[in-house]
Structure formats: structure tokens, C-alpha cells
Specification:
The complex is a heterodimer of chains A (320) and B (261). With 320 residues, chain A is of the alpha/beta class. Chain A is 27% helix and 27% strand. In chain B, a hairpin with a 3-residue loop joins strand 8 and strand 9. At the A-B interface, helix 5, strand 7, strand 8, strand 9 and strand 12 of A face helix 3, helix 4, strand 7, strand 8 and strand 9 of B. The structure holds flavin-adenine dinucleotide (2 copies).
């Protein structure tokens, strides 16, 4: 069976959920060979094997952290040359997309980004994409070269499918471009203890209606009662009420959870672009005419300062 | 010595309009107003600020697109860019990101540059990969997704706010930079700027000017193929209740019914 390269997104050996989803999709089109780079790469093997990786190619070098993106492209290219895969799958993070894109140029292949589904087709893998703020669904293929496809988080179930997952060291030689962009400092984000926004099954978001940084506490309390991630509209972020890393939308994170709860968010097209593929959508807004209500499965027209705390209390009561 | 900045700008269908695909599954550009992609305004703004700090700089705005794409160039010129290049050719219809980046790379090399600036993503294709591809093609450092950028003594520095960390980046010119919408509000063109823009040069290049063959671009030359595009069915109308004191509890009931609680 054809091999499919899967680029592993991990933090010091802890594999992030979108990579496990990629393994599910990769198995539909071939045998997954995972590529894990950087510190802790070896430690990823067990979980990757459990989810279907027949092989795990690993490499670590200071270049991966000291320079931007290109060293990882050199490594993925080395894996590509070693394996001659039928396709290359990469998670659709900002960095993942850049790595995939540069690889595609180097190997003379087309690229599809932000696929939300993937299936085998007569002429290679067929990717489903969501276009124009999710108002269209398209099906596309790469028609030249080896398909390079980036996939959005929450696009496939995580499934156990134990495989060998033998670890092999990947030999990488860095090219002249690898050291072009130096990372001179890095400040890691502090963990909030809440689920990662793009991976969360439930997202609770607040917008301009929340009316102040201090009021985001009620949004967080609701999120915590549901074990959810917290999101924000750009209006709330621009006002300085919540960090930009939590922004949902076209220029923020794109989320696709089982449940999305929007409070005090009007539903502008740029916000919708980042959440419209959520399975169930709920909104609380005092304006019955707000466009967000066109999207909802359940909407409450009312003051969020009354509705949200009551909802949180009720959830806590029901959960006991 | 003069700092030559090329800003790549895209002409896109207005996101608030009713965007559609045509029969050949390319974007319908006839029925929706087009404009300069809002995210590219941030690129033009940063170019203007970098030019202000430099002893001597020249800003060229570059677009690949149909006849109407001149509007995007005019907007950038009225913001303060010095001159414009429009790459236009009937054979470009339906070009994908590999083709577009090829054309842009050829045009940038022909124009001459020390610094290329792009937006973070277009508001139509929203791939967000063109900047990285362009850097690869040009063989220059990519300094992408910056929320802060500075150019001094032949070095570009910037801050990239990523998922897991915020990084400080540094590269030597020539380089390619992309900026996010966190980099600073874009200025509005002044009346004077709009008048001045009318006199600024706009060059038109076609594929032969760039030594490109028609089969390297367009739908035919595309590295990807779109098989179908279907409008998502409108969501079935949800339940909407007015809060009369029990709104939170009613919502909890709904969530419980859906097994979220
Ligand atoms: C290029 C570009 C990119 C963009 N990218 C993004 C993006 O990534 N994400 C994003 O979100 N936006 C983005 N925007 C901005 C977008 O256009 C909107 O301005 C933004 O989404 C509005 O945020 P909001 O809904 O919180 O605020 P508003 O539109 O002001 O809506 C606030 C809502 O809160 C309601 N409200 C007020 N008080 C209460 C209360 N007490 N109880 C209940 N409801 C209340 C109001 O009725 C109103 O509907 C982008 C814009 C551009 C031009
Ligand atoms: C809905 C949709 C889906 C698509 N999917 C794919 C796909 O999966 N694979 C594929 O290969 N192509 C795809 N395309 C085509 C692709 O979007 C275009 O080829 C486009 O020119 C490059 O991608 P982008 O606009 O998304 O660029 P992005 O990478 O999002 O744009 C980043 C920056 O590049 C610059 N830029 C982009 N285009 C131009 C231009 N024409 N002129 C000047 N500067 C420009 C701008 O500075 C912009 O801010 C798609 C197009 C649409 C409308």
C-alpha cells in the first residue's frame, strides 16, 4: 500500500490532537509514516503508533528552534525523498501551512490548504474545502505532483488503530536558506489550563457586548462549567479585553467545535468565517436582529449579564 | 542608497457581498464589487511607515489580476505608494497559488527589490501561503506573520505572535515580510492622495513581458483542480427564545437535550 507522510505537530513530545486526526485521514489513502521534528520527537512514537503510524521518522537539531520554518522544510523534504509518498498531510496551523507550501514548491506539486475532509479518489485524494466564510463547499484535487494537503483541526475523528510505529532517525542536511531568518527571542504563551481553542469540543466566545475585560470572568466561568475553550471577537480583542490568541475569525483562529456559544457577538462575516462550520451554534444577544441569529440552532434574545450566569449556575447544578 | 519596496496587493470580491463561483468553478468577479483586499492595506501601511523611516525609499505596488484590479492599485497609490505594476493577461484566468506565485516572483525580480511586503492572507482564497511560497521562489528569508516590523541598516526585525509563543525575528535584506492586521491600522487616503494617485505611473505587463508561457499558468496550467463547488444549504431556522427571566435555564435545557451537559 502507498505510504502517506504525516507531519507531526507536538510540544516537547506531546502530540497535538490535529495530528492524530490526520492519521485517521491518512489511513483512508494509504499507510501513515509520521515525521516528528525537534526536542521530544522520539517520545511521540508511542501515541503515533497507537493511532496508525507504521513508521516514525525523527530528527532533532538546534536549527529547528533557532531559525524560522525553513529547517523544518528541509527535514520534511528529506523524509519525502526517503519515502516517495503518495501524499503529504500537514496540520493547518500557521506554521504547518508555511512548511507545506514551501515543500510543495520544492517538489513541484500543487497544494490544497484548510481541507475539512479527505477521501480516496480515482485520480488521487479528494479534499473538501469550505469557501467564502463557509457559504460554499468545494471538492478539489492536486493535479500535478504529489498532493500536499493541509487539514483543519476537528476535521476527522481520532481513532485507535495500532501499528508498528518503528522509530527511524531521519538524516537532514540544511540548505543555505535554512538559516535566513533567525529567531532571536521566544516568549512561550502561559497556559490557562483550558483546552486549546482550535482543538476544543466546546468554545464559549464573548464580543463587544461583554463590555470590559473585567466582565470576561462570566464568559470564563461558563466555559469552565462546560470544560470549554474561551474565544473572543476582534472587537473584544481590539478593545484589549482578551488576548489576540483567543480571537475567532478570519484573522484569528478558525474553530469547528461540536458546540459554539457566542455571547454579545453580532456575527459579522469575518467572525463567521472562523466559526460557521461549528456543529451546533448557540447565541445570546440582546438584539433580535443580530445576524448571528441566522446561524443558530438555539438563540436567546436577552442581556448576557442575566442569561450567562444563570446558564452557568444551571449547568453546575445539573452536573452536581 | 534607495530602499526598493514591492508590496503585493490582491483585488478581491467584497466579503460582505454575495460571493459565488462561475460555471468553470472560478470566482465570479462580475456580480460582486471588487476591492483592495483589506488585509493588504496593512501591508501598504507598513511599507509607508518603513519608507518614512528610511533615508530614501520607493514603494511599488504590484497586483496580478483582471482589468478591474487597477482599482486595488489606485487605492494603494492614493494611500501613498509611488508607482504600480499590473500583471494582466487573459491566460491568467483561473491561476492557482503555484501559478500566481510564479508570476509574482518573475514580476518582482523584473521590478527590482530589497524588500517585498505582503498581507497575511487574501480575503477570498484565504490560503495564507503565498508569502512563504514567494520567499522560497525568490530565495530570500521569509519574515512572516509579523504584528510589528522594523527595517534598519539592511536588517529587518519583527515580532511573530504564534500559537505557542511570541517570537522575535531577524533577517538581512533582501527579504520577504508579511504583516497581520495587528500591525497597526491602515491610513485612509487623503483627498490630496487621491488626486496625486491619478498622476502616478501604472505599468501593465503581460506574460510575454515576464518570459512566461501561457501553459505555466491559468486553469490549464494549474497544479490543482476544483471538481465541484456547492452552496451550503441555508441552516434550518433554529429555536429563538426571548429571555423573560428563564433564558439561561431554557438554554441549559436545550444543551442537556443535545447531551452537552
Ligand atoms: C479584514 C478584517 C478582518 C477581520 N477579522 C475578524 C476576526 O478574525 N474575528 C472577528 O470577530 N472579527 C473580525 N473582523 C471585525 C468584524 O468585521 C466585526 O467588526 C467584529 O466581528 C465585531 O465584533 P462584535 O460582534 O463583538 O461587535 P459588534 O458588532 O459591535 O456586536 C456586539 C453585539 O453585542 C450585542 N450586545 C451588546 N450588549 C449586550 C448585552 N448586554 N447582552 C447581550 N448582547 C449584547 C449587540 O447587540 C451586538 O450585536 C475583521 C474585520 C476586517 C475588516
Ligand atoms: C475559495 C478559493 C479557494 C482556493 N483554493 C486553492 C487551493 O486549494 N490551492 C491553490 O493552489 N489555489 C487555490 N485558490 C487560488 C488561490 O487563492 C489564488 O491563486 C491566489 O492568487 C493565491 O492564494 P490566496 O489569494 O489565497 O493567497 P494568500 O496566501 O492568502 O495571500 C497572501 C498575500 O499574497 C498576496 N497575493 C495573493 N494573490 C495575489 C495576487 N493575485 N496579486 C498580488 N498579490 C497577491 C497578497 O499580498 C496577499 O495578502 C483558491 C481560491 C479561492 C477563491
Amino acid at each position: 500500500m502507498a505510504e502517506v507522510l504525516v507531519y507531526v505537530d507536538h510540544v516537547d513530545g506531546a502530540v497535538r490532537k490535529p495530528t492524530l486526526e490526520l492519521l485517521t485521514l491518512a489511513r483512508r489513502i494509504g499507510e501513515p509514516v509520521a515525521v516528528a521534528l525537534g526536542a521530544g520527537a522520539d517520545a511521540t512514537a508511542a501515541v503515533l503508533a497507537e493511532h496508525g503510524a507504521v513508521k516514525v521518522l525523527t530528527a532533532d537539531a538546534p536549527e529547528f528552534t533557532e531559525y524560522l520554518v525553513v529547517p523544518k522544510v528541509d527535514a520534511l523534504q528529506a523524509a519525502y525523498e526517503a519515502v516517495s509518498p503518495a501524499a503529504v498531510l500537514v496540520p493547518s496551523s500557521a506554521e504547518g501551512k508555511e512548511i507545506a507550501a514551501r515543500l510543495a514548491v520544492r517538489i513541484g506539486s500543487g497544494i490544497i490548504t484548510d481541507a475539512i475532509d479527505l477521501e480516496a479518489g480515482d485520480e488521487g485524494p479528494v479534499a473538501t474545502q469550505s469557501a467564502f466564510a463557509a457559504s460554499f463547499t468545494t471538492k478539489s484535487r492536486v493535479s500535478k505532483g504529489t498532493p500536499v494537503i493541509t487539514v483543519k483541526p476537528n476535521s476527522a475523528p481520532v481513532e485507535a488503530a495500532p501499528a508498528a510505529g518503528a522509530v527511524e532517525a531521519l538524516a537532514v542536511t540544511f540548505g543555505a536558506l535554512a538559516t535566513g531568518t533567525k529567531v532571536t527571542a521566544r516568549t512561550p504563551r502561559e497556559s490557562t489550563g483550558r483546552p486549546e481553542l482550535t482543538e476544543a469540543a466546546i468554545v464559549v466566545s464573548g464580543g463587544r457586548g461583554v463590555n470590559g475585560a473585567e466582565n470576561f470572568g462570566i464568559i470564563e466561568a461558563l466555559a469552565d462549567s462546560l470544560g470549554a475553550a474561551v474565544g473572543a471577537s476582534r472587537a473584544a480583542v481590539d478593545a484589549g479585553w482578551y488576548p489576540h490568541t483567543n480571537q475567532v475569525g478570519q484573522t484569528g483562529k478558525s474553530v469547528s467545535p461540536q458546540l459554539y456559544i457566542a455571547s454579545g457577538i453580532s456575527g459579522a462575516i469575518q467572525h463567521r468565517a472562523g466559526m460557521q462550520t461549528s456543529k451546533t451554534i448557540v447565541a445570546i444577544n440582546k438584539d433580535a436582529e443580530a445576524p448571528i441569529f441566522d446561524l443558530v440552532d438555539y438563540g436567546v434574545v436577552g442581556d448576557l449579564f442575566a442569561v450567562v450566569p444563570q446558564l452557568t449556575d444551571e449547568i453546575k447544578a445539573r452536573k452536581g | 542608497m534607495s530602499l526598493r519596496i514591492v508590496v503585493c496587493v490582491k483585488y478581491v470580491p467584497d466579503a460582505t457581498g454575495d460571493r459565488q463561483f462561475t460555471e468553470d468553478l472560478t470566482v465570479n468577479r462580475d456580480d460582486v464589487d471588487g476591492l483592495l483586499s483589506e488585509l493588504d492595506e496593512y501591508a501598504v501601511e507598513q511599507a509607508l511607515q518603513i519608507a518614512d523611516e528610511a533615508d530614501d525609499a520607493e514603494i511599488t505596488v504590484l497586483t496580478v489580476g483582471p482589468e478591474d484590479a487597477k482599482d486595488a492599485l489606485r487605492k494603494a497609490l492614493s494611500m501613498g505608494a509611488d508607482k504600480a505594476i499590473h500583471v494582466e493577461d487573459d491566460d491568467l484566468h483561473g491561476t492557482d497559488v503555484m501559478g500566481t506565485s510564479l508570476v509574482l516572483a518573475k514580476a518582482i525580480e523584473k521590478a527590482g527589490y530589497d524588500l517585498v511586503i505582503t498581507g497575511m492572507a487574501s480575503t477570498d482564497g484565504t490560503m495564507g501561503v503565498l508569502p512563504a511560497i514567494l520567499a522560497e521562489r525568490l530565495g530570500v528569508p521569509q519574515v512572516t506573520l509579523l504584528s510589528e516590523v522594523k527595517v534598519e541598516d539592511g536588517t529587518v526585525t519583527g515580532r511573530r505572535d504564534g500559537d505557542t509563543a511570541s517570537e522575535q525575528l531577524e533577517a538581512s535584506l533582501p527579504a520577504l515580510v508579511s504583516v497581520t492586521d495587528q500591525s497597526g491600522e491602515a491610513r485612509y487616503p487623503s483627498f490630496k492622495g487621491i488626486m496625486a494617485a491619478k498622476k502616478k505611473p501604472v505599468e501593465s505587463w503581460d506574460l510575454s513581458d515576464l518570459d512566461l508561457e501561457s501553459d505555466e499558468v491559468g486553469l490549464e496550467g494549474s497544479w490543482t483542480a476544483v471538481d465541484s463547488a456547492a452552496q451550503r444549504p441555508a441552516r434550518t431556522a433554529g429555536t429563538i427564545v426571548k429571555d423573560e427571566g428563564e433564558g439561561g435555564k431554557q438554554l441549559a435545557e436545550f444543551l442537556a437535550g443535545q447531551k452537552f451537559i
